[in-house]
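Listing S7. Sequence submitted for prediction.
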Amino acid sequence: MKKILVFLIGLGPWISAGPVLAQDAAGQQFQGFNLQGYSESGEKAWAVNGSKADILGDKIKISDVAAESYGEEKMNLTAESGTINQADGNIHLEKDVIITSQRGTQMTTDSLDWNRTADLVKTKDPVVITDKDMTLTGKGMEAKPGLKTAQIEKNVTATMDTDPEPEVKKTITITSDGPMTMDQSKSYAVFEDNVVAVQEDQTLKADRMEIYFNQEQKQIKELVCSGHVVIIRGANQSFADKAVYTGADQKLTLSGRPKLILVTEGNNAFTSIGN
């Protein structure tokens, strides 16, 4: 028969635990563990399960964590181990931490802090986020659990498929020192500080790059670069304060002291156009 424990954490979650494996002055150890939280309206908001739980004062240490969040989008979260703080209900996870959103976006990292009240997950460790048409890596992250909005702090690399045809692979790779912020609900991403984008034989550099996506066609709708913009196509180079690329007509517009340097003939012959 299960022993049922009730703790007043946050919005009235319930904890149920299996048979007692050990009990001493330091705490209790249970086989099997389930913690559920509810919103103010009484709807199930989240759940945390584990194969074993050690209750040590105001800390609950869990093995083989499997959790779910039922916010705007359902999220599944797994880790080898976790610690629940009974005072505030926040959860720290470690080793092979994986978040999987309902639509299939997945994030992996080494450790994670889940603030349930603010509905935020954070880590200082390297992260990898994968989606159907994108892979994003970096170090340090803050995000909503469903991964619709996220900020990668530094050492950012994003590889995206920009061709809507499934049999055609046309990728663009973007790196930046960071931070990088994305909002999938608004189909928007911004890269900051030493941004470099490479696609086939073209390289684009800037201080800041904003990307707006066409979600239906899985294409870049608009790309806005600002600050020390440099565009390299083979031996030709363009310079400007701002560059705007529109995907519908594949047009690139330079503004703010634009200058174009072209190779006209020979290895060392150039023509400069602009001001």
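Caption to Listing S7: primary sequence and predicted structure tokens for the chain studied. The chain has no helices and 21 strands. The two ends are 82 Å apart (CA to CA).
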